Amino acid sequence: MSSFVNFDSMDCYNAAVGDCYQAVQGVWALANGGLFGLGLRNSREKYGWLPARSNDYIFAILGEELGLVGCAVMILLFTVFAIAAFKIIRKTRDHFIRIVTGGIIVWIVGQALVNIGVVLRLLPMLGMPLPFMSQGGTSLLSVLFACGVLLSFARTIPVGPASTAIAAESLPRRR
Fold it and tell me: What is the pTM of this model?
């Protein structure tokens, strides 16, 4: 309960042990990375101090090994994923596909934002894995299944002149 109440107090930064230990080590891992990071498999926090490094705080390890540039690329990749899924929503006329695709976007991108927010200490520790990155078969399997659903929805979108005809039909007609 104390992690929800005091998730960003200054007392946490001064505590060497206790409820804030994992969060402080995550911030230190990000700080050690600098602009370009220490290099892949050269993390110091991963091998000694950061608990839950392979699931809850994988973004901190990514920040230490690849730096600010690697973190920006990871956020950019999630943005590209969301844009591609929104393109599916925009080009289809089937309401079921739109609703399911919107749910998958909210689930995967929202989960990524929560994980990044926890590592940056903007949110309290929630135990949410980073999609596509965290260790654990169930989370990865369900995210990959959802991506397969998105790919099957993308195959239903007409290509070529038919897609422009659908876009023209959705526009209001002038009288």
Answer: 0.79
Contacts of 83 (CB under 8 A, 6+ apart): none
Residues 6+ apart with CB under 8 A from 121: 7, 8, 23, 26, 27
Q: Which amino acid is at 15?
A: A
**Cβ neighbourhood burial of 108 (10 Å; 0-12, 13-18, 19+):** buried
pLDDT digits (tens, 9 = 90+) for 95-149: 999 999 999 999 999 999 999 998 888 888 888 889 998 887 788 899 999 999 9
Q: Could you tell me if 98 and 89 are in contact, meaning their C-beta atoms sit under 8 angstroms apart?
A: yes
Structural contact between residues 151 and 76, judged by C-beta atoms closer than 8 angstroms: no
The label of the residue with tokens 């689930």 reads: 107
